[in-house]
Amino acid sequence: MARATVGRTFIASDVSLGNASEAFRLRCQAQGLSAGTLVWYRDILKPWMAFLDRHGVTLAKEVTPNLIRLSFEDMSERGVSRNTIARTYGGLRCFFGFLSRERMVPQNPFQLVEKPRMEKKLVKPLSMDQARLLLAAIKTKRWTDQNLRTIMVLVLDTGLRVSEVTSLRRDQVDFHGGVLRVMGKGAKEREVPFGVTAKQALWSYIARRGEIPGQDLLFVNRYGGKLCRYWVEKAMRNLGRAVGIEGVRVSPHTLRHTFATQYIENGGDAFSLQKFLGHSTLDMVRVYVGLADTDVAQLHRKFSPMDRLGIVATGSRRVIVR
Q: In terms of DSSP H, where are the helices of 210-268?
């Protein structure tokens, strides 16, 4: 790897994109990022670097702002959604930010590239009638069915990510306190409360699960191994088709959205919701508030401070609006 010395610093001038990608992967692992995040970065970088290779670009320093814009135009022409393009931009900007800090590139080309706009498309949650229909359709005679039903009840009650559910250990369930100690993104632990219905479902599941030597994961497959998140997603998708639900994607992520919107509609506040969901900012919580706009308006009519204050005298007159 050739290096050009500049004063008392140096710049790695001939770093290949492959070596740069491997260095970034090691950095992400050292930071303790989740396996899902590592896969996400890999799935972004691999096709993007294939695009660069088709254009004869193999060195990190050869990536220019115009080439980046051209790659996004190529994605758009291939029918990739604007949201996916925007997320790709975020991942690549983080990648080149790392390369810039490590002096593998002379400057970060993403500083001159505007972030593509995302579509303001909201994930439609399930109605409560649809949620009841799904849960009622699951017969728990088979182990796999009870497994699925327990997970669905838990996600609807807590808003956990499917990866968080499949990674739960038995010692992370506090039945006395009614909370789950969840290890979320960025290896950040948080406490998430669960209700009586979820508690009963968990008790029933654990009683049937029994003791499995050497296995501390809560949810397991029929062989006693770790439950695959893709099995959960496929099982829910098949269940949605079986009961005839249309217009809403039946998935663990939809259940998470459903929990969030129901929490807001039932009077929950955005800050506690942010904590339960494990979001670092309120940005995503604002989306859930938007999904529940109609019912939030109804709540305001019910709890309006001024309406509760009642009639206020204005000088010598009193104004009543009906």
A: 229-243, 252-265
Q: Is the pLDDT reported for residue 3 higher than 50?
A: no
Burial of 69 (0-12, 13-18, 19+ CB in 10 A): middle
* Active site amino acids: 161, 185, 253, 256, 279, 288
**pLDDT tens-digit profile of 78-134?**
988 888 899 999 999 999 999 999 999 998 999 999 988 876 666 788 999 999 999
Q: Are 203 and 179 in contact (CB under 8 A)?
A: no
In sequence order, what are the residues at sequence separation of 6 or more whose Cβ sits closer than 8 angstroms to the Cβ of residue 275?
190
Joined tokens for residue 246: 């249309």
Q: How far, in Å, are 62, 139, 180, 235 from residue 193 at the CA level?
A: 50, 26, 6, 26
Report if pTM > 0.90: no
Query: What structural domains does the chain harbor?
Result: 3-112 (1.10.150.130), 128-302 (1.10.443.10)
**CA atoms within a 13 Å half-sphere pointing along the CA-CB vector of 268:** 21
Token pair recorded at residue 215: 């296995």
